[in-house]
Every structure is written in structure tokens, then in C-alpha cells.
Write a structure and sequence with these properties.
By secondary structure, the chain is α+β, with helices and mostly antiparallel strands. It is built from 17 helices and 12 strands. It has a single domain, classed as Cytochrome P450 (Cytochrome p450, Orthogonal Bundle). The strands form 3 sheets. The chain has a 7-stranded mixed beta sheet, covered by helices on one side. A hairpin with a 5-residue loop joins strand 3 and strand 4. It starts with 8 loop residues before the first strand and ends with a strand.
């Protein structure tokens, strides 16, 4: 076993820190070999359990006693620096932290943003944005693909969908990228900046409604006599930013990196572009961008995978790990990238009532972006050693901070 695969422990709990995240596939593989659930220490020293096995992950994500309500864990959270039941700037206006019926009410409003029809209508615009970004690549033949392509594509799509004016796009991209890096000093300022931008735009859309999603959310809120509070309205918009943007940025980066590390799969996908829909599912399985679920808390004492979880215990599901433990077709190795894999099974978008709202848009953007990139850029390679790449160090998102490449545009 390599040194990189060794998982550090503290007081019997595996420590999920920046070093763990940078080497997450190998670390989770080692954990799976010794069981589907393990004691873990997360950000700010929070203790809980991490589920790494596929079947137990599905059970945990739908377990009736594992809820988003953190009240049973109030004392532990307060000791770690969290304060419950007080207004705070966050992502999702409690949608990501809510249980039914509150979650049902909030999700019903937000789900209008990602209907199959609305998503399909975005395809031509996504393709145009992808071509424009490739046209704008530096003529030197070297660039950071995250900065030049992966980040601006979904950021532009969700900004236009929400109705964010072009002059705010750069700030929007910066804040949305920093908002999920919970241990970064930029985390809270980014949340505040994103919150302020969206709150100001919502006030403007109320005075001057337009044909965009923010205006539609304002109309629903006002027509329903305030059933959605103003803070919930802003938070819902913030959640849509995450659901429709940040996960796709890193899914694209992880997919391109996986192809560059597996040139035979890259060649196969260039030769057979019809494989792209299934290949996207394989990228989601192989190295998904949403590495872990948001936290759940035991509403009562429960047994999960044979492990007793006391009331208030925190449970997190390793979504990326589950994809390497799912049942696969005979003769296929889940550790390998295979763009021809039949029916790649994964939990990249979660499972149950909290299944990701942005899944249809993420799939569409990834397929169009990769197809355009592989068609327009016939020569593409890493410009630095793989081991020198820096990964996002905290939070639930997995991805490289930059992806330096050399290329030739056709």
C-alpha cells in the first residue's frame, strides 16, 4: 500500500482534510476495503460518520431518521462554532438544510428552473458559448482550462438564465467559486458578496421584471402572498447558482483530466462521439464533482450498517466513493475509466428527495462542452505533471483549482 493511500486518523476517526481530498479516490478505496461506514472528523473538527459503500449510501440518503434538521446536534455544533436558529447567510435558504414539509415547499418553487423543456431550450445557447470560449483561447497554445473554458461556460449559462447583467458576471463567477470552499478565508466574504448581488437584483427585478428566472421567482413569491419569505427567495437563487453552476465547473475539469490521463479513452470518444451521453455518466461515476453529501443528523438512535449512531450524530455520504462500489456489469472493473461502460451506476446527484435539481442541466452542459472541446481542439495535453495539480481543499466539491494545458485549435 502506498503512503498516499494511508488515511490519517485522530481519536479513532478518519480525518477528511485537504490532504485527504487531494487523494480522495485512493483514500476512499482503502476505507471501502474495511467497511461501508467509518467514524470521521470533518471541517472545524466536527465528528460524525462517513458512508463509503454504495448500498449503505442509498439507505442513508433516504433513511427516515437521518434528517437535515440539526437540532439534535445543537450542543456539538455550537462547540464547533456553529450557531443554530439564527439568521445567517448561506446557500439555499434552508432548502439544503430542510426536511418536509418545508423542503417540499421550497423545492417546488426552485424546480421550475430545471424542467426538461427549459433545459433542452438552452442547448443552442450552450453550444454557442462553448464555441465562443474556444475561439477566445490564447493563441500561444497554452492556457488554464478551468479559467478559460470550464468555469466561464456554466457560469455564463446560469447567469443568463437567472438574468444577471453582464457587468456582474466576473464578480458572480469569483464569488460562486469561493462560496463552497468552507475553510478558505474568502468563503464568508464570497457568500456575503453573492447574497448582496442577488438581493439587489431581486429588488430590481421587482421594479422592472424581465424574461428571466429571477423575475419569475419574484412573481411567484409576490403572487403567493409571501409564502416564500424574502430571505428564502434570495437563498433559493443562491442554491440555483450552486445547482446550476459550481458542480458543473468541476465535473468538466474532472472529466477532461480523466481523459488526458487515459489517452485511449480520449481517442475512443473522439472517434465515436455518439458515446458521449454514456461517457458523461461514466465521468460522474469515476470522479464526480460533488464528492460528499451535505450533512444529515440522527433524529433518534439508529443502527446504520451495523454501527450505532446516537441521536444527534452526523452522517455524511461519500457520493464519489459510492460510484466505485456500485454493482457493475460482469467483467468490468469499477476502478477503471471506461466510456463504453454499459449503464454506469452512481450517486453523483444524490438520491431521494434531495436529488440534485441541476442534474439535467449539468448533464447537458457537460455533454455539449466536451463534444465541442474534443471536436474543436484536436490536440490537447496537460502542460504540468499530474502530481503538481492543486485540488479544492475543503467543502463537498472535488475538483482542480487550475488545469494548465497545451492545445491546438482546429
Amino acid at each position: 500500500m502506498s503512503t498516499r493511500e494511508q488515511c490519517p486518523y485522530r481519536d479513532g476517526a478518519v480525518v477528511i482534510d485537504s490532504a485527504f481530498k487531494a487523494d480522495a479516490p485512493a483514500r476512499y478505496a482503502r476505507l471501502r476495503r474495511s467497511g461501508p461506514i467509518h467514524p470521521a472528523e470533518f471541517h472545524l473538527g466536527l465528528k460524525g460518520w462517513v458512508v463509503v459503500g454504495h448500498d449503505l449510501a442509498r439507505e442513508a440518503l433516504t433513511h427516515p431518521a437521518l434528517l437535515k434538521d440539526a437540532t439534535p446536534a445543537a450542543e456539538a455544533l455550537a462547540a464547533a462554532g456553529y450557531v443554530l436558529h439564527q439568521p445567517r447567510v448561506g446557500l439555499g435558504a434552508r432548502m439544503m438544510e430542510a426536511d418536509p414539509p418545508e423542503h417540499t415547499r421550497l423545492r417546488r418553487l426552485a424546480s421550475a428552473a430545471f424542467t426538461p423543456r427549459r433545459t433542452a431550450e438552452l442547448a443552442p445557447r450552450i453550444e454557442r458559448i462553448a464555441h465562443d470560449l474556444i475561439d477566445a483561447l490564447p493563441p500561444s497554445g497554452e492556457a488554464d482550462l478551468v479559467e478559460a473554458f470550464n468555469a466561464p461556460l456554466p457560469a455564463t449559462v446560469i447567469a443568463e438564465l437567472l438574468g444577471i447583467p453582464r457587468e456582474h458576471h466576473l464578480a458572480f463567477r469569483r464569488w460562486s467559486g469561493q462560496a463552497l470552499q468552507v475553510s478558505s478565508p474568502e468563503h464568508r466574504p464570497a457568500l456575503a458578496g453573492l447574497h448582496g448581488l442577488l438581493a439587489g437584483l431581486i429588488a430590481d427585478k421587482r421594479r422592472h421584471p424581465q424574461d428571466d428566472l429571477l423575475s419569475a421567482l419574484v412573481a411567484v413569491r409576490d403572487e403567493e402572498n409571501g409564502r416564500l419569505s424574502e430571505e428564502e427567495l434570495v437563498g433559493t437563487a443562491m442554491m440555483l447558482v450552486v445547482a446550476g453552476h459550481e458542480s458543473t465547473v468541476n465535473l468538466l475539469g474532472n472529466a477532461v483530466l480523466a481523459l488526458l490521463r487515459h489517452p485511449e479513452q480520449l481517442r475512443l470518444l473522439r472517434e465515436r462521439p455518439g458515446l458521449m451521453p454514456g461517457a458523461v455518466e461514466e465521468f460522474l461515476r469515476y470522479d464526480t464533482s460533488v464528492e460528499r453529501s451535505t450533512s444529515r443528523y440522527a433524529a433518534r438512535d439508529v443502527i446504520l450498517g451495523g454501527v450505532p449512531i446516537p441521536r444527534g450524530g452526523m452522517v455524511v455520504v461519500a457520493l464519489g466513493s459510492a460510484g466505485h462500489d456500485a454493482p457493475h456489469a460482469a467483467g468490468t472493473d469499477p476502478a477503471l475509466l471506461d466510456v463504453t461502460r454499459p449503464n454506469p451506476r452512481h450517486l453523483a446527484f444524490g438520491h431521494g428527495i434531495h436529488y440534485c435539481l441541476g442534474a439535467p442541466l449539468a448533464r447537458l452542459e457537460t455533454a455539449i462542452a466536451l463534444r465541442t472541446l474534443l471536436t474543436r481542439v484536436p490536440e490537447l495535453e496537460l502542460a504540468v505533471p499530474v502530481d503538481s495539480l492543486d485540488w479544492i481543499g475543503s467543502g463537498i466539491i472535488r475538483g482542480v483549482l487550475s488545469l494548465p494545458v497545451r492545445y491546438r485549435v482546429a
